[in-house]
Design goal:
Layout: H1 3-16, H2 19-26, E1 30-33, E2 39-44, H3 47-56, H4 58-68, E3 75-80, H5 83-86, H6 113-119, H7 151-162, E4 172-175, H8 182-196, E5 202-206, H9 207-219, H10 223-231, E6 235-239, H11 248-263, E7 267-272, H12 284-290, E8 294-297, H13 303-316, H14 323-332, H15 337-354, H16 360-366, H17 368-377, H18 380-391, H19 395-399, H20 405-421, H21 426-432, H22 438-454, H23 456-470
The structure holds adenosine-5'-triphosphate.
The site of adenosine-5'-triphosphate has 19 residues, from α8 and α15.
Length: 471
């Protein structure tokens, strides 16, 4: 068995197979012949590749070699390893056979351990396989609070955890603004996959890490190890894919990794800060691939969910947070869960520092700069201006006695927003809306709540206005 024969075999397979399959499965194989030429061993980088090549390609490799070589065929073996490790290390021993695929210009470079490390993400470094996962073990389904804003995403994540790589859920893409629980849910799936199968190789990384690893693999000439590593996982979790924007080579590599994983039935979970089609600088083919599976938006949590999250986090911290205190915080911190957690941390620190019980007074003290900042930003005047602009009416219409639907509904919405976003009392709000009674304001708040639940358009208007006013 000569190197030349193996090269001819590779050339034939390269012609026969789609390039992606050839590059992924055949190209990384290394070969070594026994001294008497009776046995030929193909070395694959890991067990996964061994199984795959045995099932799909080994027979064909044997046939091709048979066609090319007259006389008896060597016995073909396939195992994990490298041909260098198999070579006899004596000075006079023949050099291990090198495939052109691994290094066209010379013998195969079996990477030093340090190089392997630099090519593989942190998750791969050290430890037994089941300990390699770099998931945050605190991000589970049990610690995730569901509400209207994230229920669909949580259900999709559960599905993936129960049936990884099933058609229609691969890739799972979670998208939405910062601090809304995308990373948490993604880890929850990973943790659940490992709970169900402790040997599952689940790798989480930020897209910037993927880019950095790829660059260092290129620099250290370990790009093949890099590819093999990412293609050998059971589930690949990549956070914040918007960071791939504008990085063409990384997108190219990720595109191939992505295809290989999908083709092999491995699960991919991605997060993005917006719907990928809206990310500038992301290749069209990637955008379209991302949409192959299931894309789920995650919205800012509504008041009730914010309260439930605060209660849950307080319970985890073994702190008693009364309902009115939770409401007080949730009404003031609306943008995202990370900020909500930050506010709660400050309150808890204040409790531990002063030894006092949690009540509204203590919260006001602990969060006074946040509350002051918000009070400056959101005034009733401001709300009236934004609402009038949104519904294309005049500010004066909001203050006037007119009761036609086209102004009465926006007025009610503006009152409800004033109640939710400012700390003014009902009489104060009524006063600011043309001297109305506090019962009118109360009625408006109830009516708007009812309409938001029954009419999706009004809910959407309300959410749009909330976003405009609080961002
Ligand atoms: N529904 C929820 N229940 C419990 N905790 C939550 C929930 N949503 C978010 N969190 C918590 O809020 C914090 C921020 O969430 P996470 O990091 O998942 O946000 P993200 O959407 O990935 O944001 P980014 O895009 O900034 O990475 C985390 O500590 C997470 O545990």
């Amino acid at each position: 068995m000569s190197e030349e024969l193996w090269q001819r075999c590779l050339t034939r397979l390269e012609d026969e197979l789609p390039s992606q399959q050839y590059n992924m499965w055949i190209r990384p194989l290394q070969v070594a012949a026994s001294a008497d030429g009776a046995e030929l061993t193909l070395f694959a980088p890991n067990r996964f590749v061994v199984d795959w090549v045995r099932d799909k390609y080994l027979e064909r490799i044997g046939e091709v070699l048979g066609e090319m070589q007259a006389g008896s065929l060597p016995h073909l073996r396939l195992e994990v390893g490298s041909s260098r490790a198999a070579a006899v290390p004596a000075a006079s021993a023949p050099q291990p056979v090198s495939t052109p695929a691994a290094s066209p210009a010379g013998p195969i470079r079996t990477p030093e351990p340090a190089e392997v490390r630099s090519a593989a993400p942190q998750a791969e470094v050290g430890g037994a396989r089941k300990h390699r996962s770099n998931l945050n073990t605190g991000f589970t389904f049990a610690t995730f609070v569901e509400g209207k804003s994230n229920r669909m995403a949580a259900a999709a994540a559960q599905q993936v955890a129960e049936n990884p790589a099933s058609h229609g859920y691969n890739p799972l893409l979670l998208y939405g603004g910062v601090g809304l629980g995308k990373t948490h849910l993604m880890h929850a799936v990973g943790n659940e996959l490992i709970r169900r199968n402790p040997n599952a190789k689940v790798v989480y990384l930020h897209s910037e890490r993927f880019v950095a690893d790829m660059i260092s693999a290129l620099r250290n000439k370990t790009i093949n190890e890099f590819k093999r590593f990412y293609r050998s996982v059971d589930a690949l979790l990549i956070d914040d894919i918007q960071f791939f924007a504008g990085k063409e080579q990384s997108q190219e590599e990720f595109f191939h990794t992505f295809n290989a994983l999908l083709e092999n039935g491995q699960q991919i979970i991605l997060t993005c800060d917006k719907f990928p089609k809206e990310v500038d600088g992301l290749e069209e083919r990637l955008k379209s691939r991302f949409g192959w599976g299931l894309s789920q938006p995650m919205e800012p949590p509504e008041l009730e969910t914010r309260v439930a999250i605060l209660k849950k986090k307080a319970e985890e911290a073994k702190v008693d947070l009364p309902n009115d205190a939770a409401f007080f915080i949730a009404q003031r911190i609306r943008s995202n869960v990370r900020e909500l957690e930050g506010a709660l941390r400050r309150v808890i620190a204040h409790v531990r520092f002063t030894g006092a019980q949690i009540d509204i007074g203590l919260i006001k003290e602990a969060l006074k700069d946040l509350i002051a900042l918000q009070a400056r930003q959101i005034s009733i005047d401001n709300i009236q201006r934004v609402v009038a602009e949104y519904y294309k009416i005049k500010i004066n219409d909001l203050l006037s006695p007119r009761r036609t639907r086209s102004v009465a509904r926006p007025r009610q919405v503006a009152m409800a927003l004033s109640k939710e976003l400012t700390s003014h009392s009902l009489p104060e709000i009524g006063e600011n809306f043309g001297g109305r009674d506090h019962t009118t304001v109360l009625h408006a708040c109830r009516k708007v709540l009812e309409l938001r639940e029954s009419n999706p358009e009004i809910e959407e208007d309300y959410q749009n206005l909330l976003r405009t006013l609080t961002s």
